[in-house]
Specification:
Layout (H helix, E strand, L loop, with lengths): L2 E11 L2 E6 L4 E6 L11 E7 L3 E7 L5 E5 L4 E6 L3 E7 L6 H13 L3 E7 L7 H13 L3 E4 L5 H12 L3 E6 L5 H8 L1 H14 L10 E4 L6 E4 L13 H6 L5 H4 L16 H7 L5 H18 L2
Parallel strand pairs: 3-5, 8-9, 8-11, 9-10, 11-13
Antiparallel strand pairs: 1-2, 1-4, 2-3, 4-5, 6-7, 12-13
Bound molecules: guanosine-5'-triphosphate and zinc ion.
The site of guanosine-5'-triphosphate has 16 residues, from helix 4.
Length: about 300
Amino acid sequence: MSQQTQGRVIAAHGRHYTVELSDQTLLKCYPRGKKNEAAVGDYVEITRQGQEEGALESIQPRKNLLFRSDESRSKQFAANVDQLLIVIAVEPAFSDDLLGRALAGAWSADITPIILLNKVDLTEGLPAAQLKLAPFRKLGVQVLELCARDIESVNEVLLPILKGKTSLLLGQSAMGKSTLLNTLVPLALAATQTHSVALGAGKHTTTSTRLYHLPDQGGDLIDSPGFQGFGLLHLSREEIERGFPEFAEHVAQCRFYNCTHQHEPACGVLAALERRDIDAARHALYVRLLDAKTAHESY
Ligand SMILES: Nc1nc2c(ncn2[C@@H]2O[C@H](COP(=O)(O)OP(=O)(O)OP(=O)(O)O)[C@@H](O)[C@H]2O)c(=O)[nH]1
Ligand SMILES: [Zn+2]
């Protein structure tokens, strides 16, 4: 006998998904048909098939979907995300370009980005890292400083931010994302391994995206594998522009309604750039994103 019910995708494993029902039962679900490309965080309709399996019938409308795409492939990070936590560290050096792209990706999808500066116990390098982050603070991005290994620091800085929200955690390799996750959800990690064995899905690895419930109703945290690139080829020109919210007040001054803010006369954005009201590195990133898109489309 089959029975239709709702759940949330908490892990994606290529061909199948782990779906959690409201009573916390975990089911291994296969999509029915090819169109059901669910992402972690999606709310879905499923038909139960026995104790441990189900068919994924449909995906409920999403609040948002964070996505990345480059020439060779595209990848869904997660759906229905409230905030993007970008983990960087005092050491090793983080990529400005990648950080800028992550911010643009978040803003274009209406997701609030927050920067987590980890390893602040490495005090020697701290001032340089803070200086590098100054332009991002100026944009109004919240920057939280913490020490991922220190449970008190993590609890004090992060728990209030995470409560009641779905947060997506991203970070380049070696920034301390695994350490942070282990500090936040040691119990969830242990539990996941047990469930994985039960579901025959293999043990926990950081190669797949997963959603964890924080203890004491503290919110949900989605862990995504380390990201080396953050292509934004899927964004339209208008969406790329939304990734640069500091342009908005100046766009109103552009002579042409479809101004691309690259070489047009009487462009409000270029005028602001000239006056240094817009950061040159930010405008350069905007141009790189547009150029990559143009090259991709004419390919
Ligand atoms: N000093 C210091 N080191 C830290 C802190 N957090 C993590 N580390 C160290 O930084 C290194 C990288 O941490 P991981 O948690 O493995 O980094 P990751 O971002 O998950 O990296 P990948 O596993 O490559 O994706 C490890 O040697 C950690 O011990 C911190 O708060 N302070
Ligand atoms: Zn313009």
